[in-house]
Fold this sequence. Notes:
alpha/beta, UDP-N-acetylmuramoyl-L-alanine:D-glutamate ligase, two-stranded antiparallel ribbon, globular, PyrdxlKinase
Amino acid sequence: MKSLLSIQSNVAHGYVGGRAATFPLQYLGWNVDNINTVNFSNHTGYGHFQGSAISGSELTSLFKGLHQINCKYDVVILGYIPSADLIDIVSGELIKLKEANVKTLYVCDTVMCDQGHIYVDKSCVQAYRRLLATGVADVITPNQFELELLYGQSITNSQTLRDAIAYMHNTYKISYVVLSSLSCSVLDIDAQDLICCVVSCSPLTHEQSNDTNNGLGNGYTPALQVFCITEIKSYFTGVGDLFTALLADKLYASPDNVGRAVNQVLTIMSNVLRLTHQLGVEEYKRYQYELSADLLAEGRMNDGDSMRFFELRVVQSREYYDYKGDGVFESINI
């Protein structure tokens, strides 16, 4: 049976972090082990929460236990890690896991910020750079703001986008860079209701990228595949966590066609978000909240009264996860 280690947040209520990732992966046939970097009552978008982060000693102890029983994984997913110290611990432990199984696929979602709002300490940026410098990550799935933090410069046009992605390939020998969300204005696409997803693949497989003599130097310029997706007007949480989990599944199945894997995931995510919004609006109405003619119900950041209606409908969306088509979105190459 396929085995996967998920290292990310956990909430008692709602669907973010491991709660957004675990059920879909299990539904797809994965044996999922979880290390919870935080245990919160609910996600922080409600404006208030209770709980705590794991300590460094507890995190080290959990990894020690997994090593003692000789756990090996086909895929490892990294999600939200709240501090630089914890990122450094994870980095060292991932090296040990990779030594145990060099074929393991490592998918790293550098969860640091969203829509320009940073929700980790700034020291995490340098810690993620140190993690990536180990060469352990095969896939990264940052959003635009996170890529800008890792690159150290703003992304304002197609050239700076290409430069940033090339930097990730060349500096950290990352096989697949999947930019989960990008403002269309960067690519001079005039559409306020669209959001872009950008895919780049190095000429190396993730196994070849582990070879220090692989020949990938500082001159590699990536070809970029861009998907444009209609954006639903609402604030959803856990989207990146579910996206990364599904991408890990699809990419593990088809490592030679990352564009197809991403299109599959975007197709699934589009269905999940539409269903989430539809059911959220219906539930909102059942609670007799007024909807004005010009404003649909939507989740709003730091507004628990609206956010609770728009938690991802992870269970209700289960029929979408095993999608095997090529995807419904057109792409352009730049």
